[in-house]
Amino acid sequence: MRHNKKFNHLGRTASHRSAMLSNMACSLIKHKRITTTVAKAKALKKFIEPLITKSKDDTTNSRRVVFSNLQDKIAVTELFKEISVKIGDRPGGYTRIIKTGNRLGDNAEMCFIELVDYNENMAKEKVVKKTRTRRSKKSSTGAAVEAAAEKVGTPVTEETPVAEEASEEEVAE
Questions:
Q1: Within a 13 Å sphere around the CA of 11, how many CA atoms are in the beta-carbon half?
Q2: Dihedral (CA of 47, 24, 118, 88) sign
Q3: Which residues lie closer than 8 Å to 140 by C-beta, 6 or more apart?
Q4: What per-residue confidence (pLDDT) applies to 29?
Q5: Looking at the predicted structure, is the pLDDT value of residue 51 above 60?
Q6: 90, 117 contact by CB (below 8 A)
Q7: pLDDT tens across 2-48, in order?
Q8: Which pLDDT tens digit goes with each residue over 131-144?
Q9: How do beta strands 33-37 and 109-115 pair?
């Protein structure tokens, strides 16, 4: 009987599936984001999240267990040195799947799978837009001049009385 033995075989034999997931996990650790199909991304999520949890405690045994799954020294050292430090306080949910649409050739659902703390686009603080205040219509001429000067970027300066007196004297002569 095959009760409770339900997971996606991805159309591959067991050895091919484990090799593929191992390679995809190494690529995800090295590049922090990869593009793949949704089915493979979900299978990869189940494969890599226990390895990331295992990497939180840096012991010889945990390194050996992770290496037996990944078979890549560079990926293992990066996982234990960089990634485990950055996600040390996170209790789980180390990856995020973002759907990107369908593939052109066979219409397969495509997606990004990425490590959560390494997303540069989401991690940046959003730029706070300056809200404009409405001006009262009482002094519409002065407000219009100031608004036009703000758009151009030049400061509004009023003429000084000394300059006015000098211009009046020139006119009188």
A1: 2
A2: positive
A3: none
A4: 96
A5: yes
A6: yes
A7: 899 888 999 999 999 999 999 999 999 999 999 999 999 999 999 99
A8: 777 777 765 555 55
A9: antiparallel
| CA–CA separation, 139 and 148 (whole Å) | 14
* Residue type, position 128, single letter: V
Per DSSP, what are the bridge partners of residue 37?
A: 110
User: What type of residue is 19?
Assistant: A
Partners of 36 in the β-ladder: 111
Residue identified by tokens 């151009």 is 152
Cα–Cα distance for residue pair 156/83, rounded to 1 Å: 52
93 vs 45: CA distance, rounded Å: 9
Residue matched to tokens 């997931």: 21
Which pLDDT belongs to residue 151?
58
* CA pair distance 1, 99, nearest whole angstrom: 35
- Name the packing angle between helices 60-70 and 38-54 (round to 10°): 160
Spatial distance between the Cα atoms of 90 and 86, rounded to a whole number of angstroms: 9
Give the tokens for residue 16: 């091919």
